Amino acid sequence: MRLESDKYFRKMAWQIGALSLLLSAELAFSLPLIAQEPQGPLSLPPDLPTDQIPPYRPTPTPQPTPKPAPRAPEVPRVSYPIVHEPPSMPVDQIIQEFARHEVQFKIARNDFTYTRTFLVETIDDEGQPDGEYTMTSDITYTPSGRRFVKITNAPLPTLRGISLSEQDLEDLRHVQPFVLTTDQLPQYNVTYVGRQRVDYLHTYVFDVAPKKIEKHHRYFQGRIWVDIHDLEIVKTDGKAVPNIIKRNYENLFPRFTTYRENIDGHYWFPVYTYGNDILHFRTGAVHIRMFIWWKHYKRFRVTVKLIRPPQPKQ
């Protein structure tokens, strides 16, 4: 996320000041008219019987609408302490196995259609949302089998003080649903941490960090959980790197947690991402929350119709 420019805020302040002067002038001309208006209930016509005069009831003061409670994670998870003990098989073998499964997972996921909803909220000092960016997309196929993304809902953003960058949208596609395949292993240091139970799953825990950060490339840095039995990644926790900081430009990225679920009895697909972080810009801190939902996974099938070619005339 990046801060809006100072030039934008100076322009907004100038417009607000001009509007205030205009309203003050209009109020000054309307004061005599307001002073002549009657106070209390209006007088009734003289021919109305006294017993039919309704009692005066002042208009009740409207009560402010209560703010909604802060949004909580949709999928609460229970994690047990990490047990620092060696695995039942060599660490290098575990890494190669789950990376190989990630290759299969990546290929299989490209055969599925699904709906993705992305929501970012800015949070005020009272812990309540005061702005948001939301976008819902259908990842689907044309009848000819070409994969494409169709945006179905994208209202005008109302984020306070920040805006989403091109890197944020790239991370939405590749970093939050992090995939560590065999060909990506040479780019990362993968370190075994121990075992941990997450909900009903028994997992191996690994720390992951890029060995080298190349310009214009996005990476994941954090921790992954690999199911002991399936040897597939079931959870990731970390952030997208690097932050982009230049002389007059800052682009910072929040920490997040992504959960996967077994969709088709074999592959673990990402279903939910949650992030609650404070981005520390040079001009001040911005509190944000981030949510991503992947829903309605369906395997795509192409319908093939066989047509008998016309027979040549004798």
Question: What's the arrangement of secondary structure elements?
Answer:
Elements: E1 2-3, H1 6-35, H2 91-109, E2 112-123, E3 129-141, E4 147-153, E5 162-163, H3 166-174, E6 188-198, E7 201-210, E8 219-227, E9 233-241, E10 244-246, E11 249-251, E12 255-262, E13 268-281, E14 284-299
Antiparallel strand pairs: 1-5, 2-3, 2-14, 3-4, 6-7, 7-8, 8-9, 9-12, 10-11, 12-13, 13-14
Commentary on this structure:
With 314 residues, the protein is an alpha+beta fold. The chain has helices spanning 6-35, 91-109, 166-174; strands at 2-3, 112-123, 129-141, 147-153, 162-163, 188-198, 201-210, 219-227, 233-241, 244-246, 249-251, 255-262, 268-281, 284-299. The protein has a ten-stranded antiparallel beta sheet, covered by helices on one side. A two-stranded antiparallel sheet has the order 1-5. The longest helix has 30 residues, at 6-35. It starts with a strand and ends in a 15-residue tail after the last strand. Mean pLDDT is 82; it is low at 7-11 and 21-45.
Condensed summary:
The chain has 314 residues and is an alpha+beta fold. The chain has 3 helices and 14 strands. It has helices spanning 6-35, 91-109, 166-174, and strands at residues 2-3, 112-123, 129-141, 147-153, 162-163, 188-198, 201-210, 219-227, 233-241, 244-246, 249-251, 255-262, 268-281, 284-299.
Number of helical segments? 3
Beta-strand content bin: 35-45%
Oligomer: single chain
**What is the strand tally?**
14
Spatial extent as radius of gyration: 29 Å
Low-confidence stretches: 7-11, 21-45
| Class of secondary structure makeup | alpha+beta
Question: What does the average pLDDT come to?
Answer: 82
| Fraction of helical residues | 10-25%
Q: In one word, what is the shape?
A: globular
Lateral strand order in the biggest sheet = 4-3-2-14-13-12-9-8-7-6
* Intertermini distance: 72 Å
N to C succession of SSEs? EHHEEEEHEEEEEEEEE
Largest sheet: 10 strands, antiparallel
